[in-house]
Design brief:
The complex is a heterodimer. By secondary structure, chain A is mostly helical. Chain A is 82% helix and 0% strand. Chain A has one domain. Chain A has three helices and no strands. Chain B is mainly alpha-helical. Chain B is 65% helix and 0% strand. Chain B contains seven helices and no strands. In chain B, helix 2 (39-57) packs across helix 4 (96-112) and helix 5 (125-147) packs antiparallel against helix 6. The chains are: A mainly alpha, B mainly alpha. At the A-B interface, helix 2 of A face helix 1, helix 2, helix 3, helix 4 and helix 5 of B.
């Protein structure tokens, strides 16, 4: 503490530069503090009310506006996404239905073709069977005829060998009667 | 008190805990007249510059996503704005700039005074008396301007028993006039006492034997002072809001 002369120090500071009593209560210094306090307060008030507070309140308002807008935009995007998802699901459902329809159609077509083929095959088989039956009947008929002829000839020969006269008509009738039996 | 310490002579300790509050001219050694730039001026100016730095330079970018400094300013703004709105109601919001200025001056002065070798304007009675009585006088005038003679209803408890009303009125009037005194003494007392205690501990720290304890004491008191500085600024502001509410709505 620099030593000051007593007349400069006044009533609040002693010869050694230390405070006499509480400096807070020194009346000599009060006007100075009050003057500078008032100046400072006015300056702070002007800075705050003219520059800082309007600016901060504008920034805060702008921010809350931005946040509101962003939330609205997010909501919109969410709705769009939901719509897109619904559309996707619908498309999936449609595609599945379409696929089922195509499968059913193909199945029906194949079935129809199959039926036609089966019918054709059946008809062929039936025709073949009938043909075969006819052939078999012919063969059988042929065989019977041959047997009849052989029997007639044999009977005629037998009759001749036994010394009778072979009346053709009688023999035929007799053989026919026997063959029926 | 300081003079008694001098006379001891043999003592190791030089106790001058109040010397930190001496008002000194910044330039030269002349007498301190009302306009002399002093250390009070200097630290008030630093407080003003700090406020400008946080609130004007900090919000310079007007950023939607705030910078650190800007968000400090916004935080303080929101804090005081909400306090004014909650305590005084919607019609008190137009006094928000005044209350905000008051709060910021006290807050920044208090915290800047915690810097070693600094000066604490808010520990000076003259300063806090002007603050306290300024609030008191402004609010009293506002009360009469807004409500006319009805403002006196603040002192007249109409729902109290009739014979008690005059007694309550006297108590209310006394408590009303004590308001500025308590406002100013509370602020100056808290800040000055904290600084004196810090200084006393710092003096003890000069002796090797007890210096560790003294330094721990300084740390502890410093931590406490950090709380006190914020709390005193808050208390001054919220009491101002409460008084303002009384002036705007005097009916109980």
């Amino acid at each position: 503490m620099a030593t000051e002369t007593t007349d400069v120090a006044g009533v609040c500071v002693d010869a050694g530069g230390s405070a006499l009593g509480m400096p807070q209560l020194c009346a000599d210094w009060m006007p100075n503090q009050i003057f500078w306090l008032v100046i400072t307060l006015i300056a702070v008030y002007f800075v705050m009310s003219r520059v800082a507070l309007p600016r901060i309140s504008a920034v805060l308002a702008e921010r809350s506006g931005t946040i509101t807008n962003d939330i609205a935009a997010a909501e919109e995007l969410k709705n769009k996404a939901a719509e897109a998802e619904a559309a996707y699901d619908q498309a999936l459902l449609d595609a599945r239905a379409e696929a089922n329809k195509i499968v059913a159609e193909a199945k029906a077509e194949i079935q129809a073709e199959l039926d036609v083929e089966l019918q054709k095959a059946d008809a062929q088989i039936a025709a073949k069977t009938a043909e075969s039956e006819a052939a078999i009947a012919e063969i059988r008929e042929g065989a019977v005829k041959s047997v009849t002829e052989v029997a007639k000839a044999t009977a005629k020969e037998l009759v001749v060998a036994m010394g009778g006269t072979a009346d053709a008509k009688t023999i035929t009738a007799a053989v026919t009667a026997r063959m029926k039996g | 008190m300081a003079t008694e310490e001098y006379s001891e002579g043999g003592s190791v300790f030089q106790f001058h805990p109040l010397d930190q509050f001496i008002v000194k001219p910044l330039f030269g050694d002349g007498p301190v007249s009302w306009y002399t730039p002093t250390n009070v001026t200097l630290w008030m100016a630093i407080a003003l510059l700090a406020i400008v730095a946080v609130f004007v330079l900090g919000s310079r970018g007007r950023a939607i996503i705030p910078t650190r400094l800007q968000s400090v300013g916004e935080l303080l703004y929101g804090f005081i704005y909400k306090m004014v709105e909650d305590v005084t109601g919607k019609d008190g919001v137009k006094y928000f700039p005044y209350i905000m200025s008051l709060f910021l001056f006290i807050l920044f002065s208090n915290y800047l005074a915690l810097i070693p070798m600094s000066y604490s304007p808010t520990s000076m009675i003259a300063v806090t008396v002007i603050l306290g009585f300024g609030v008191f006088i402004a609010i009293t005038i506002l009360g009469f301007v807004k409500n006319g003679p009805a403002f006196l209803g603040l002192f007249w408890m109409s729902d109290a028993p009739a014979f008690l009303r005059p007694i309550i009125a006297i108590i209310e009037i006394i408590s009303y006039f004590v308001r500025p005194v308590s406002l100013s003494i509370r602020l100056a007392g808290n800040i000055a006492a904290g600084h004196v205690v810090l200084k006393v501990f710092a003096t003890f720290a000069a002796a090797a034997l007890i210096s560790p304890a003294a330094i721990l004491g300084i740390i502890a008191i410093y931590g406490l002072e950090i709380l006190v500085c914020g709390i005193q600024a808050y208390v001054f502001t919220i009491l101002t809001c409460v008084y303002l509410k009384d002036a705007l709505h005097p009916a109980h």
